[in-house]
Amino acid sequence: MITRAIEAQLRRLLAGFPVVTLTGPRQSGKTTLARAVFMDRPYVSLEEPDLRHLAMDDPRGFLARFPDGAVLDEVQRAPELLSYLQTRVDVDRRMGLFLLTGSQQFGLLSGVTQSLAGRTAFVELLPFSIPELEQAGVRPASLDEMLFTGGYPPLYDRGLRPRDWLSAYVMAYVERDVRQLLKVQDLEIFQRFVRLCAGRSGQILHLTSLATDCGVTHHTAKAWISVLEASYIVFQLRPHPVNFSKRLIKAPKLYFYDTGLLCWLLGIQEPGQLATHPLRGNLFETLVVSELIKAYFNQGERAPLYFWRDSNGNEVDVIADAGGRLRPIEIKSGQTLNRDFFIGLERWLALAGSQAQSPVLVYGGAEDRVHRAVRVLPWNRIHTVFEFWGQCA
């Protein structure tokens, strides 16, 4: 088992909460991590129909089977159980009794926040980060291989080809979530929608344009984006609210959590295609932003990340906001540093003044250095962005 960076945070929370809820995309390693942390406790998957029916028909009897707690996997499948779990932990009063897991934010979080408010902490587990792969000695050697493979654990545990596994993943999990959440009948249209989203990763999200290109209504496109977010397939990066300019872009940017899935959706067949692919820059930006998100999640923090762009096209890819301290992070896929890489940072720094701290440029090359007060980091050292800031939040 590859050690997960979030494990220490998970154990700390179990010492202070009776219940901890572990969420994340399907096949991100939640079950493996939960069973490793609770190796001396029973494990129950509520995906299994007989156990799910028992939990729903006789919740008190079901919980009584676990006097010292348990792992309850895919708990969103039996939401009625959560109210009885509240009573159980209130009477017992021990910490670290139950570890819940779930893959859908809609069904899971609404039930947990209603029934277990104040009794559970939340931990979000995404696919492997670059540091986790590096520590295990399995990180793809080149940037193109990293982009193409992504971070889903089965690709490293089973020796599968990314395109074989990702095809099955989309069919088995993404489309199943869609059926459960939205009752979508025509999956062909939804598949086209997801591929259109893939072509927009790292770009401003214009829902009307996306809906028109797919042949659906604006309302449907908005609902489908919400489903992809709930399934941890995509996320939105909001523009930073500080108004250095009167003419700021207000729409969010769309990103995928995993570049391997993104490559599959774009029809990329092998890493060699990435060198000249027209969306290479977007793929690289997606990798960097998702790695920054993982760095925060692995510390148990929400990611205070934004972007900045004005109506004249001036832009900084990421603004990390830690209590008013703003760190600009520019992302360039090129392997050779050039003067143009720093233009966006310099313009933003001139506007931000004393609020700006420790600017960073992450690029596709290999050199780690400081250039004119800008920290320049290669792609495989993204995680060190926050080491020079003292903390990850």
Can you describe this structure?
The protein is α/β, with parallel strands linked by helices and 393 residues long. The chain folds into three domains: 7-124, 3-Layer(aba) Sandwich (Rossmann fold), CATH 3.40.50; 136-279, Orthogonal Bundle (Arc Repressor Mutant, subunit A); 305-388, no CATH class. 41% of the residues lie in helices and 17% in strands. It contains 16 helices and 14 strands. The protein has helices spanning 7-14, 30-37, 49-57, 59-64, 81-92, 105-115, 130-135, 143-149, 154-157, 162-182, 187-198, 207-214, 218-230, 259-265, 280-297, 343-352; strands at residues 19-23, 43-45, 70-73, 98-102, 120-124, 203-204, 234-239, 253-256, 305-309, 315-322, 325-332, 360-363, 369-371, 374-378. The strands form two sheets. It has a nine-stranded mixed β-sheet, with helices on both faces. A five-stranded parallel β-sheet has the order 2-3-4-1-5, with helices on both faces. The longest helix is centred in the middle third of the chain and has 21 residues, at 162-182. The chain starts with 6 loop residues before the first helix and ends in a 15-residue tail after the last strand. The relative contact order is 0.10.
Main features:
single chain, about 400 residues, alpha/beta, Rossmann fold, Arc Repressor Mutant, subunit A, 3 domains, five-stranded parallel β-sheet, globular
Short description:
This protein is an alpha/beta fold and 393 residues long. It has helices at 7-14, 30-37, 49-57, 59-64, 81-92, 105-115, 130-135, 143-149, 154-157, 162-182, 187-198, 207-214, 218-230, 259-265, 280-297, 343-352; strands at 19-23, 43-45, 70-73, 98-102, 120-124, 203-204, 234-239, 253-256, 305-309, 315-322, 325-332, 360-363, 369-371, 374-378. The model has no long low-confidence stretch (mean pLDDT 89).
